[in-house]
Automatic annotation (TrEMBL):
One of its GO terms (cellular component) is nucleoplasm. PROSITE patterns: ZF_THAP. This is THAP-type domain-containing protein. SMART domains: DM3, THAP. It comes from Cardiocondyla obscurior. It is found in: Nucleus, Nucleoplasm. The keyword Transferase does not apply. GO terms for molecular function: sequence-specific DNA binding; zinc ion binding.
Length: 905
C-alpha cells in the first residue's frame, strides 16, 4: 500500500490544508494508462517528464482523494481496486467580491467506515442476523428523512455555538455505517475547548447499544481523530464492557435454537454435496465438517498414528489439508514420536511408524541395507523417574546384567534406491559383546524389517574385532561373501572408509610388493619434502598431518583418502618424469592411483557424469566390471613385507577388500533383476551412521563419550527427525489423491478414553525438595542423624498446623533416649535395611521404584497422628537413597579403575 519512506501526499494543497492524524498512502501505478489518468485527475502534469516508474517510487496519494467504493478492506488491511482513480480534491471558493481563493472540503467527504470483506470464520449466527435486521431497517426508512450533523463549539469563557446543516443523499448500502452513532462518548475536559459531534436521526427504532466493529477509513478529519482514539482504547474497553442484562437473557433463550438451526443447515449441506459432488469429494467434505464439529479433545494414540500415515503418503498435501481436518502439526507429530518409550532392543512403535512410511514407497525404494556400528560410552547410572528404571546397565532388550555400559551398538536401515534412512535399534553392552548374541540381534532386525515390507540385501559393518569375529561366525569368505536368512541372501560388506584407514596404517609400517614392483611410504615422504619446497606445489593439500597423524587425525577418513588421491599420483608421476624421484617410485604411484579409482567406484553418490572415469553411480557396465576384476587380481598379487624383510601373512585387510568387491558385484546382479538402473555405492558405507554418532555427541555437549542417558535422549530425537524427513515417492498428485481418499474413508470418531500421561504414573513423585544439597561427607552417625532431621522437617512442611507433630519433632530432635515403639530414627533405620537388602537385586529390573515402595510399606511405623504423611516420607526416602547411591557410584566410575563393574553398596 504505502511506501516505507514516503509520507507526503502529492495532491496540490492536501498536506497543508487538511489536518488529519492518520493517512493511508497509495503509490502511483506503474501502468502508463492508469498513471496518465492519475496525473490528469490530480493536476500533476509536471510528472510527465519523469515517467510512471519514477512516480511509482517517489510519489503517493493519500486516501482522502478516493471514493469509498474504490477501497477494499481485506482482514483489516486497505487496498485500492484496480479501476480506482482519484476524484476528490480541494476546490477554490470565492466569497462575495473577495478575489482571494479559499480552499474548502467538498461534501463528498462523508462520515463512513468500510466493513471488512472477510471476517473470522467463527462468527456467530447472531451477528449475521443483526446485519440482516439493519439492512431491513435501512430499506424501511423514508427517503425524505434528513440527517442533521450539528457541530457545536463550546468555550468556558465566551459560549458561542455555530452549526452547519447539510442535506445527505439517501443511501441504502449496507456497507456504510454511520460513524456519528457512537456507542460511548469521547472523553473531554471542561477547561479545554472541545468539539462534540451529535447526530439527529428522525427514526431510531432500536435504542439498545450495540458493538460495531470498524476497521477502516473515514473521509473527514474529525472522524479520523475519533478512529485513532477508538483503536487505542479498543482492548481496554472490550475487557471492561458489560453487556446489558436483556441481551444476555435473549442470547440464552436463542442459543439452543440457533444451534439446532446450524445443525439442520449442515445436514442440508452434506446432502447437497452427496447429490452434486463425486463420491470421494463428498466424503472428503463430510469428513472435514465432522472434524470441525468435533470437540477439541486430546487426540488419542490411534489418531496420531493415522496422522503419521497421512504425512507419509504425501507430506506436501498433508500441510495443505491439515487445517481443514484438524490434523496435528508436524511439530506435534515430532513430539508424539519423541514421547515414545525407546528402551534398548527392537521397539514396536518405531517399526509400526516405519511400516507406515514404507507403505507409501515404491517397491524399489523398499530395498535397503543394514548398517551396524558401535560407539563408546562413559559408564554412568541414571534413574529415570518417569519410566521407573535405571539406565546405564548392560541391556540388549532380551538380556540384562549389572555390568556397566561402556559401548552401544546401533543398527540403521538405509535405502539402496530411495533417500530414506532410519535408526531402528540400539543395544548397551559392557565392552565386549558376544558374537552369537550380536548375530541374533542382527537377524531379528532383518526379519523384523522384512515383516514390515523392507527387504535387506546387504549388511555393512566396520573392521573392529567384534565384527571380524561376526564375519567368521557367519563364514564369510572371498568366494562366498553372503549368508542366508529365511532363504534370502544377504551380502556382507565392510565399510570402505574404514578399509581405507586400515590400508593407510598398513602402508605406513610395511612395504608392499606386487607384479615385480614396490610401494613404500618413504616415497610419499620424499615427495612431500620435494613438493613443499616448490613455489607451486603439485599436491597443496598434503601436510604433516597426513604423514604423521595425531590421535584425532588417525580416525578421520579424509586424511587417508587424500593420501590415496589422484593429485599425489600425478605429482609422483611428474617428479619421476623430471628425474627428481627414482624409477622405483612407479610402484608407489600405481598403487595410489589404483586405490583412488577404487574408492571412486565404491563411493559414488550421483548418477550424473563426472570428470573422473568412475565418478558417477555404479551401472555395471563393461568398463566398471573389468576394473573390479583387475582390482581383484591386483589384491591377490600383493605381498606384505615388514621392515625386516619378513613376509607377513596375518594381515587380512586386502582379503576384506576382495570380500567387499565380490559382495558389491553380486548385489548389483540381484538389483539388476529388479530393473534397477544404477546404484549409488556411497549408501553402502558408514557415512550415515557416523553422522548419527556426530549428532549424538553434539547433542550431548560435544562429549567424545556421552553417558547412556544422554545417548538415549539424543537417539529418540534422531528417530523422530529421520521418520519425519520424508519425501513421497512417485507422483505427488497421485499421492495427494490417495491421502484425500484415506481422509474421506476415515471416520473421525472421538476417543472417549483419556490418554494417560507418563507424569501421572510416576511412582516416586514427591513435591520439590532440596535433598540433593545435603552434604553427607560426615561420620556415619552424624550423617544418619542429619538425614533423619531433614526427612522430619520435610514432613512437617507438608503436614502443617499440627501441634502434636510439632511436639513430636521437637522431642525426636532433642531427646537422646528414644522409645522404640514410636522412634522416627528407628523407622528410618528399618527403611535403610530394606533398601540395602533389595536394591542391588532389583536395580536392573523394570518398575524399580514400585517394587521398592511395596517392600518399604511393609515396615511398621506408628505415626504421631493419623494425618502424618507416611506415604510422602517413604517416597522421599527412596528418592534420596537412590540418588545418593547412584551419585556415589558414578564418582567411583570416574577413577581409572576397571574393577567397579557391579553396583557397590
Amino acid at each position: 500500500m504505502d511506501g516505507p519512506n514516503t509520507r507526503w501526499c502529492s495532491a496540490p494543497g492536501c498536506m497543508m490544508n487538511i489536518k488529519i492524524m492518520k493517512r493511508h498512502f497509495f503509490r502511483f501505478p506503474k501502468e502508463r494508462d492508469r498513471w496518465l489518468d492519475w496525473i490528469k485527475a490530480c493536476d500533476r502534469m509536471d510528472l510527465m517528464v519523469f515517467g510512471p516508474e519514477y512516480a511509482n517510487l517517489f510519489y503517493r496519494l493519500c486516501h482522502l482523494h478516493f471514493r469509498v467504493e474504490m477501497f477494499r478492506n481485506i482482514e483489516g488491511k486497505i487496498y485500492l481496486s484496480k479501476e480506482a482513480v482519484p476524484s476528490i480534491f480541494l476546490k477554490p471558493l470565492q466569497t462575495g467580491n473577495n478575489t482571494s481563493l479559499t480552499l474548502f472540503q467538498p461534501i463528498s467527504f462523508v462520515n463512513i467506515f468500510l466493513k471488512p470483506q472477510s471476517r473470522n470464520k467463527n462468527l456467530s449466527t447472531d451477528l449475521s442476523s443483526e446485519v440482516k435486521m439493519q439492512s431491513i431497517k435501512s430499506e424501511e426508512r423514508s427517503t425524505s428523512d434528513v440527517q442533521c450533523i450539528e457541530e457545536t463549539y463550546m468555550d468556558t469563557l465566551t459560549p458561542s455555538t455555530s452549526s452547519r446543516i447539510f442535506l445527505k443523499q439517501d443511501c441504502n448500502n449496507t456497507d456504510v455505517i454511520d460513524l456519528t452513532s457512537m456507542d460511548f462518548p469521547i472523553p473531554s475536559t471542561p477547561t479545554i475547548p472541545s468539539k462534540t459531534i451529535s447526530v439527529c436521526a428522525t427514526q431510531n427504532g432500536d435504542r439498545t447499544p450495540k458493538r460495531r466493529y470498524w476497521n477502516i477509513s473515514t473521509q473527514t478529519p474529525e472522524a479520523w481523530i475519533y478512529v485513532d482514539s477508538f483503536f487505542q482504547e479498543k482492548r481496554q474497553m472490550e475487557k471492561s464492557e458489560i453487556r446489558a442484562d436483556s441481551l444476555v437473557v435473549k442470547r440464552r433463550k436463542t442459543f439452543h435454537a440457533d444451534k439446532e438451526r446450524d445443525h439442520i443447515n449442515l445436514d442440508e449441506f452434506k446432502t447437497a454435496c452427496v447429490n452434486l459432488l463425486p463420491h470421494n469429494s463428498a466424503l472428503l467434505v463430510s469428513a472435514c465438517i465432522n472434524a470441525c464439529e468435533k470437540s477439541k479433545t486430546k487426540k488419542s494414540f490411534e489418531d496420531k498414528q493415522f496422522a503419521l500415515e497421512l504425512f507419509f503418503m504425501a507430506s506436501d498435501a498433508y500441510r495443505s489439508y491439515r487445517p481443514l481436518c484438524l490434523l496435528p502439526t508436524v511439530r506435534q507429530l515430532w513430539r508424539h514420536i519423541r514421547n515414545w518409550d525407546m528402551p534398548p532392543g527392537l521397539n514396536d512403535n518405531v517399526f509400526n511408524a516405519l511400516r507406515l512410511k514404507i507403505k507409501s514407497l515404491t517397491s524399489q525404494e523398499r530395498y535397503c541395507s543394514l548398517c551396524v556400528n558401535e560407539m563408546r560410552l562413559k559408564p554412568h547410572l541414571f534413574y529415570n523417574l518417569s519410566r521407573d528404571r535405571i539406565i546405564g546397565f548392560h541391556n540388549t532388550g532380551t538380556e540384562k546384567r549389572r555390568t556397566l555400559t561402556r559401548k552401544v551398538i546401533v543398527i540403521m536401515a538405509c535405502s539402496l534406491i530411495g533417500d530414506w534412512k532410519q535408526p531402528i535399534a540400539y543395544y548397551f553392552h559392557g565392552g565386549t559383546c558376544r558374537t552369537d548374541i550380536l548375530k541374533d540381534l542382527i537377524f531379528q532386525a532383518i526379519i523384523k524389517l522384512k515383516s514390515i515390507g523392507a527387504t535387506v540385501y546387504a549388511l555393512t559393518t566396520s573392521t573392529s574385532p567384534t565384527f571380524l569375529r561376526l564375519s567368521q561366525l557367519l563364514e564369510i569368505s572371498v568366494e562366498c561373501p553372503s549368508f542366508l536368512i529365511n532363504d534370502v541372501k544377504v551380502l556382507y560388506i565392510f565399510d570402505v572408509t574404514r578399509l581405507m584407514r586400515v590400508t593407510r596404517n598398513v602402508f605406513k609400517t610395511h612395504e608392499l610388493y606386487f607384479r615385480e614392483k614396490r610401494a613404500s611410504w618413504m616415497d610419499i615422504e620424499l615427495f612431500f619434502r620435494r613438493d613443499s619446497q616448490m613455489r607451486l606445489p603439485l599436491a597443496p593439500k598434503l601436510s604433516v598431518g597426513h604423514l604423521e597423524p595425531n590421535k584425532c587425525q588417525k580416525v578421520d577418513t579424509k586424511y587417508a583418502i587424500q593420501v590415496f588421491s589422484s593429485s599425489i599420483a600425478a605429482g609422483l608421476s611428474t617428479h619421476i618424469a623430471s628425474g627428481e624421484l627414482p624409477m622405483e617410485t612407479v610402484g608407489t604411484m600405481e598403487f595410489i592411483h589404483h586405490f583412488d579409482q577404487l574408492f571412486d567406484i565404491l563411493n559414488s553418490s550421483t548418477s550424473k557424469s563426472n570428470t573422473k572415469n568412475f565418478g558417477q553411480a555404479f551401472t555395471g557396465n563393461l568398463q566398471e566390471m573389468n576394473f573390479l576384476q583387475q582390482t581383484l587380481d591386483f589384491f591377490k598379487s600383493i605381498k606384505i613385507v615388514d621392515r625386516n624383510g619378513v613376509c607377513v601373512k596375518s594381515i587380512k585387510c586386502f582379503d576384506r577388500w576382495q570380500m567387499t568387491i565380490n559382495a558389491i558385484i553380486q548385489l548389483w546382479n540381484v538389483l539388476k533383476e529388479h530393473q534397477v538402473l544404477f546404484l549409488c555405492t556411497k549408501k553402502l558405507n558408514h557415512e550415515a551412521i557416523e553422522r548419527i554418532f556426530r549428532s549424538i555427541r553434539r547433542q550431548s555437549g560435544n562429549r567424545v563419550k556421552p553417558t547412556p542417558i544422554l545417548f538415549t535422549r539424543a537417539f529418540k530425537n534422531l528417530v523422530s527427525k529421520h521418520l519425519l524427513e520424508h519425501s513421497s515417492g512417485g507422483d505427488s498428485a497421485v499421492n495427494g489423491r490417495k491421502m484425500l481418499k484415506r481422509i474421506a474413508s476415515k471416520s473421525f470418531s472421538v476417543s472417549t478414553l483419556a490418554e494417560v500421561s507418563h507424569r501421572a504414573q510416576v511412582v516416586l513423585n514427591v513435591p520439590a525438595t532440596n535433598y540433593r544439597n545435603i552434604d553427607l561427607r560426615l561420620p556415619e552417625k552424624s550423617a544418619f542423624k542429619r538425614v533423619c532431621e531433614f526427612l522430619l522437617n520435610e514432613c512437617l512442611r507438608v503436614h502443617v498446623n499440627c501441634d502434636v507433630c510439632i511436639a513430636y519433632a521437637a522431642k525426636e530432635n532433642n531427646s537422646s533416649n528414644k522409645d522404640a515403639s514410636n522412634s522416627f530414627n528407628l523407622y528410618i533405620s528399618s527403611l535403610e535395611g530394606t533398601f540395602m537388602r533389595n536394591f542391588e537385586k532389583l536395580s536392573i529390573e523394570e518398575n524399580l521404584g514400585a517394587q521398592m515402595l511395596q517392600l518399604a510399606q511393609e515396615t511398621n511405623y506408628k505415626p504421631p497422628c493419623s494425618d502424618f504423611p507416611v506415604a510422602f516420607l517413604v517416597k522421599l526416602f527412596l528418592r534420596m537413597r537412590i540418588y545418593f547411591t547412584l551419585l556415589r557410584h558414578n564418582k567411583i566410575c570416574k577413577e581409572p579403575r576397571s574393577s567397579f563393574n557391579v553396583v557397590e553398596l
